[in-house]
Amino acid sequence: MLSESDKKILRILQQEGRITNHELAARCGMSPSACLERLRRLRERGYILGYAALLNPEKLGQPLLIFIEVTLDRTTGDVFREFAEAVRGRPEIVECHMVAGGFDYLLKLRMPDMTSYRTFLTHLAEMPGVRETRSYPVIEEVKSGVALPL
């Protein structure tokens, strides 16, 4: 179980991943060595998976965000595995989630434009087991983030 101090460390790191240990310790009201030890334990126990930079998709030529529902023709282990393998080979698919409900997978894509998206749809239709797709291009990102509520 996480202590309040651990949660505070995690909250700060989610917002400021490049903060120095000295500054983090000061903001958490602990010594730098105690803070460093808590960080080590949080990493070892799997609470911290890694660190990454948040990139601006528009500046990198990928302003179009699209969500796609995918329904497979069969829901068997081999079809799930083949579809997942095909998805892992497509860099424009930034997230893929198997879901419960009226379809099997929810994909999140980043694309340069609608022309690129149209080309991608051809490849998606050829992926193993794909029976049907529904696309939802995003008009406005109202809230987007990676921080977990603690």
Automatic annotation (TrEMBL):
Keywords per UniProt: Activator, DNA-binding, Transcription, Transcription regulation
SUPFAM superfamilies: Dimeric alpha+beta barrel, Winged helix' DNA-binding domain
InterPro entries noted in UniProt: AsnC-type_HTH_dom (IPR000485), Dimeric_a/b-barrel (IPR011008), Tscrpt_reg_AsnC-like (IPR019888), Tscrpt_reg_AsnC/Lrp_C (IPR019887), WH-like_DNA-bd_sf (IPR036388), WH_DNA-bd_sf (IPR036390)
Transmembrane segments: none
An individual GO BP term: response to amino acid
Domain HTH asnC-type as annotated: residue spans: 2-63
GO cellular-component term (any): cytosol
GO molecular-function term, one example from the UniProt record: sequence-specific DNA binding
Pfam hit, one: AsnC_trans_reg
PANTHER family hit by this protein: LEUCINE-RESPONSIVE REGULATORY PROTEIN
Protein name: ArsR family transcriptional regulator
Originating species: Allosphingosinicella deserti
